[in-house]
Specification:
Number of helices: 1
Radius of gyration: 27 Å
Largest sheet: 7 strands, antiparallel
Order of helices and strands: HEEEEEEEEE
Helix content: under 10%
Number of strands: 9
Shape: rod-shaped
Number of domains: 1
Distance between the termini: 31 Å
């Protein structure tokens, strides 16, 4: 078989057939934030020489994770389209703690949770929709 004939044969065998079109599109997955289950309840209090006046406030997680809006192949119908891998998007994390000022003898706790600037925590896979060649 000549080189041209071999190439033509490979193209015919490897080319997508109309049956290779699953009629599916990538589905939108909305952005979301997840807080770690571990953390503390911040206090709204004043402490003077070991005596505390005040009470607890809201929960402050150790970390918050931010997952971006992305697309996944979930079987959503779309005539003449296929869902394909499209790379990765960054996942961010913020580390959090309760806001307080003072030292050993005197301390004020504000009942607020403060989180650091977001850092890269990894990546999440995303997909995309593309048209099937040949219309399937």
């Amino acid at each position: 078989m000549t080189m041209h004939a071999t190439l033509l044969w490979a193209c015919l065998v490897l080319a997508p057939s109309p049956q290779d079109c699953p009629h599916e599109q990538a589905s939108l997955v909305k952005a979301r934030t997840l807080s770690s289950a571990s953390g503390v309840f911040c206090r709204r209090a004043v402490t003077l020489f070991g005596t505390q006046v005040g009470g607890t406030s809201g929960f402050c997680p150790k970390a918050k994770f931010f997952f971006p809006e992305h697309y996944r192949c979930l079987g959503e119908a779309a005539p003449h389209h296929r869902c394909v891998p499209a790379g990765f998007l960054p996942v961010l994390v913020q580390f959090c703690r309760c806001v307080e000022i003072g030292g050993q003898a005197f301390e004020i706790e504000f009942g607020a949770c403060r989180c650091d600037a977001p850092l890269n925590a990894g990546a999440i896979h995303t997909d995309a929709t593309e048209s099937c060649q040949g219309g399937g």
